[in-house]
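>> received
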Amino acid sequence: MTEPEAGGARPNLPPAYRLIALDTVTSTNDEALRLAEEGAEDGTLVWAREQTKARGRQGRPWASPRGNLYLSLVLRPECGPGEAAQLGFVAGLATGEAFGSVAPPLIEVTYKWPNDVLLNGRKGAGILLESRSHADGTLDCLILGVGANVRHFPEDSTFPATSLCFEGAPPDLSEVELLEAFSRYFQTWANRWLDDGFQPIRRAWLNHAHGLGEEIEVRLPRETLKGTFKDLDERGALVLELAGGETRLISAGDVYFSA
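>> returned
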């Protein structure tokens, strides 16, 4: 199969990946899902310079101008959908370490539950997981999308955003450089997950978790909870301690921090 190639230098990725490089696409997740339905193998990586109809969690629009990094991975882990969702934390660690490899040393990289990476407390990247299962409930594929702000960021987002260059990275930093770094770190952490399970991923994520031990607000579809961010459980759910000492496990929601 021959695919269009994005302009400029072609990324040098580890051989475990099959790169699909595009200039413009509606959504890298949509393209990765289309390829997966056609039989694309584990490790197929769709990368585009620009997205025209990208989305984040809960279908929110994701601004995608040229100069940032947009990619989606086709993954076929041999596990259930719940366990496969742990790969969101794997991707978070890989993105955070990729940021650290290209950013000035004074930039603080932290992780916001469930799937964001922060630069100096503001959103620098988001991760979107979408899965497809067989009729019997077993997982067919997981599409893991990553959007990382290299040169641009939205100034009107609900949660404050930023970019690597705004935080002091070199103005000529290329998204290709970040893609290459992400691909290496993701392979390392994914292999660790396969070999040792979620616990080393959980520990590494918690070491740089934003707001751990602090008061947070969690917005759910039907209620808003306030409490202390105590931990991640063994599956990746947020452990929230409410004012009366009751503990709630949150598997999905939007987290906000005290000013």
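>> Confidence is low (pLDDT under 50) at residues 1-5.
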